[in-house]
Amino acid sequence: MHFYKENGEPFHSVPMTTKKGTRPVDMRDVRKLWKDGTFCVPSVTTILNIYDKGFRFLNWKINEHLNQAYNLDKENLTIEEYRKEIKRLTAIELDLAPSAGTDFHKLMEDFVSGNMKDDEDYTLCQKVYETILNETGSKNFKAETNFSSELFGGQVDLHNDDWIIDYKTKQTADKFKPKKMVYSDHSMQLSAYRDGLNSYARCANVFVCLEKGKPLIDFHIHNEEELEKGKELFDLATKAWHIKNPK
């Protein structure tokens, strides 16, 4: 769960009480802020979790379990130990995808801000950014802008007055399917960002393959029909979220 305070201040984690470090926020933390009269709203992606990703997400998890089961040497393991080890290895693998995506977002922020050294990561970011410039015919982009509105908040990967861009990553080339990676939640997310920025900008996703030596990139522009439908669906999700989580 991600939340945002007034003026787009992120509220993603809180200090742990029993040991050092932080933990992700939950609704108890949010309700404490609400009780104190502090402004706090859910992120766009937190609201979108109202929608069940369904078969797409379930199929991904099943395939990862099967991959681990296929590769694991079960010799000298009981069936219970075998199951436990598959679950452990799969949990690690499932965490890699969002972690890799987060790392890439930070790389692109550093690149756009001019704070990145020339290395293999620089080359990938340069190719991604050149693709964006060529596809949009635009420039002067800002990276990782936070916002908060009355009902939701978020962090926009890349934007200027004319465009709002959101990155989506794939870890391996075999999972990279040009023109087949766009789903309805992408247009919902972008339409929400557009509303949050009070913008009429055009919106696009940039799909990037993170496998070393295979810098595959696919650029998808969402038309107004997609964005209008996305806005309608996101508005319904926002209403449902706030009914489910009243102040």
Name some characteristics of this structure:
single chain, 247 residues, alpha+beta, five-stranded mixed beta sheet, three-stranded antiparallel beta sheet, 10 strands
Structure at a glance:
This protein is α+β, with helices and mostly antiparallel strands and 247 residues long. The protein has seven helices and ten strands. 23% of the residues are buried.
Distance between the termini: 17 Å
Give the number of DSSP strands: 10
What is the assembly state of the chains in this entry?
Answer: single chain
What percentage of amino acids are in beta strands? 15-25%
Percent range for helical residues?
Answer: 40-55%
Uncertain stretches of 5 or more adjacent residues: none
Specify the number of helices: 7
**Radius of gyration, taken over Cα atoms and rounded to an integer in Å:** 20 Å
| Mean residue pLDDT | 88
> How would you write the strand order of the largest sheet?
6-7-8-9-10
Which sheet architecture does the biggest sheet show?
A: 5 strands, mixed
Tell me the series of helices and strands, N- to C-terminal: EEEEHEHHHHEEEHEEH
* Gross morphology: globular
Alpha-beta classification = alpha+beta
